[in-house]
Automatic annotation (TrEMBL):
Gene3D superfamilies: Fe-S cluster assembly (FSCA), P-loop containing nucleotide triphosphate hydrolases. Homodimer. The keyword Transmembrane helix does not apply. One of its GO terms (biological process) is iron-sulfur cluster assembly. Keywords: ATP-binding, Hydrolase, Iron, Iron-sulfur, Metal-binding, Nucleotide-binding. Binds and transfers iron-sulfur (Fe-S) clusters to target apoproteins. Can hydrolyze ATP. GO terms for molecular function: 4 iron, 4 sulfur cluster binding; ATP binding; ATP hydrolysis activity; ATP-dependent FeS chaperone activity; metal ion binding. The lineage of its organism: Bacteria, Bacillati, Actinomycetota, Actinomycetes, Propionibacteriales. It holds the Pfam family ParA. ATP binds at residues 121-128. Residues 7-77 form the MIP18 family-like domain. PROSITE patterns: MRP. In the N-terminal section; belongs to the MIP18 family. This is Iron-sulfur cluster carrier protein.
Length: 381
C-alpha cells in the first residue's frame, strides 16, 4: 500500500468541522501543520482557539477518525496547540467574512447613554437580582432603561422579569429587544436559543461575537441607561466588555463574607485594567431581620467595606459602598415569580434599599473622567 499524500490528509481534515462554529477546521486555519512519514504515520498539529477548550476531546476524536480512514495511514499523532492573539484575530475576520463590525452606539463619543456593568467575583451573590431591581428602580424615575443579559452561561434575567419564554422580533437585520411591563427592554442569549433548556457551551470568540451582537444588532433606540449583567469572575466577557465599551462604569456586587469580598476585589481590579471606572460596591445579603426586630449577620460583616476600601487604595480614587441590601425572602420570591421586589413589594426593606441605590445612580451626571472623547491629533504646531 502506498504512502498517503499531504493532499489526501488535508482533504480528510476538511471533512472535520469545529464542533461549535460548525465549519471545517481547515477553513478556520486551525490546522497548523501536517507531516507524513514513509511508514504512513501522520503527525498533525491542530490549534484550539483557547487553552482548556471544553470540546477538545471531540476535535481529537473527529480528527483521529477522519485521518485514520485515509488508505495507507498507519497511525495518527495529534497535537493540540493554542492560537496566538493574531491567529484568533484572523479567525474573527474569517467568521465576519472580512466585514467591519456593526457600530456599537453606546461606545461612540457622542453617546449620552449611561452604561452600568454589574459585576461580581463569584456566583451566588445576587448580582442578577441587583441588576434587575436597579433597572426597574431607574425606570421608576422616568428613565428609559435597557438590560443586556451578558451572563451567557447563567442567563436568568428574562425569568426574573417574567419574559423567559418571549422571543425578540427581527426587522430586516435588526433585532428588537423584548419589552417588559415595567417599561424596561431586555435582550438575552436565552431569548435567542431555540429552546429554553438548551445549554450554551461556547468559547472565547463565540462569547465575544454574542456580546457584540447584543450591543450592535439590537435596536435599542434612545436609552438613558443601559445595564449589563456580567458573568461572575474575570473571564472572556469581562475582557470583551472592556474592549467594546471602555466607557462603561462598573458596580461590584459582593456579600459580607470574607471569601466573597476577596474575589469581588478581583472583579473590580479587572474592570480597572480594562480602563473602566468602578463607581461603587453593593453589599447584598447584609443581614437578616428576625421576628423580634433584631438582626442576624448570616454571612458575617464588613465585606462591602473591605472591597470599597481596597479598590479605593488600588485606584487612587474614592470607591463608595452604594448600599447594603438585607437578606429578604421576598427578594428571592419576586425573582422566581418574575415580579421584582421593587415593583411587587416596594415598601419592603430590600426594595427601599435598592430604590435608594437606583436613585443615586439615576442622579449621577456624566462627567468627562474616563470618557473616550474620540479626539485624534492632526498636526504639530
Amino acid at each position: 500500500m502506498s504512502t498517503p499524500s499531504i493532499e489526501q490528509i488535508t482533504a480528510a481534515l476538511a471533512q472535520v468541522n469545529d464542533p461549535e462554529i460548525k465549519r471545517p477546521i481547515t477553513e478556520l486555519n486551525m490546522v497548523d501543520s501536517v507531516s507524513v512519514a514513509d511508514d504512513g504515520a501522520v503527525a498533525i498539529t491542530v490549534l484550539l482557539t483557547v487553552a482548556g477548550c471544553p470540546l477538545k476531546d471531540t476535535i481529537n476524536r473527529d480528527v483521529t477518525a477522519a485521518v485514520t480512514a485515509v488508505p495507507g495511514v498507519t497511525g495518527v499523532d495529534l497535537t493540540l496547540g493554542v492560537m496566538t492573539p493574531e491567529q484568533r484575530a484572523g479567525l474573527k475576520d474569517i467568521l465576519s467574512n472580512g466585514k467591519a463590525e456593526r457600530e456599537i452606539p453606546f461606545a461612540q463619543p457622542g453617546s449620552l447613554t449611561k452604561v452600568y456593568a454589574i459585576a461580581s467575583g463569584k456566583g451566588g451573590v445576587g448580582k442578577s437580582s441587583v441588576t434587575v431591581n436597579l433597572a426597574l428602580g431607574l425606570a421608576k424615575q422616568g428613565l428609559k432603561v435597557g438590560i443586556v443579559d451578558a451572563d451567557i452561561y447563567g442567563h436568568s434575567v428574562p425569568a426574573m422579569l417574567g419574559v423567559a419564554d418571549s422571543r425578540p422580533t427581527q426587522v430586516d437585520d435588526l433585532i428588537m429587544p423584548v419589552p417588559t411591563a415595567s417599561g424596561v427592554s431586555v435582550i438575552s442569549i436565552g431569548m435567542l436559543k431555540p429552546r429554553r433548556d438548551q445549554v450554551v457551551a461556547w468559547r472565547g470568540p463565540m462569547l465575544d461575537r454574542a456580546l457584540v451582537q447584543m450591543l450592535s444588532d439590537v435596536f435599542w433606540g434612545d436609552l438613558d441607561v443601559l445595564m449589563l449583567d456580567l458573568p461572575p469572575g474575570t473571564g472572556d466577557v469581562a475582557i470583551s466588555l472592556g474592549q467594546h465599551l471602555p466607557n462603561a462604569e462598573v458596580v461590584v456586587v459582593t456579600t459580607p463574607q470574607e471569601a466573597a469580598a476577596e474575589v469581588a476585589e478581583r472583579a473590580g481590579t479587572m474592570a480597572s485594567m480594562m480602563h473602566q471606572r468602578v463607581i461603587g460596591v453593593v453589599e447584598n445579603m447584609s443581614f437578616l431581620t428576625l421576628p423580634d426586630g433584631s438582626t442576624m449577620e448570616v454571612f458575617g460583616s464588613g465585606g462591602g467595606d473591605r472591597v470599597a476600601e481596597t479598590l479605593s487604595q488600588r485606584f487612587g480614587y474614592d470607591v463608595k459602598v452604594l448600599g447594603r441590601i438585607p437578606l429578604d425572602p421576598a427578594l428571592r420570591e419576586g425573582g422566581d415569580a418574575g415580579k421584582p421586589i421593587v415593583e411587587s413589594d416596594p415598601t419592603a426593606p430590600a426594595a427601599l434599599e435598592l430604590a435608594k441605590i437606583a436613585e443615586g445612580l439615576g442622579g449621577r451626571g456624566r462627567g468627562l473622567a474616563g470618557m473616550q472623547l474620540g479626539l485624534t491629533p492632526s498636526a504639530k504646531f
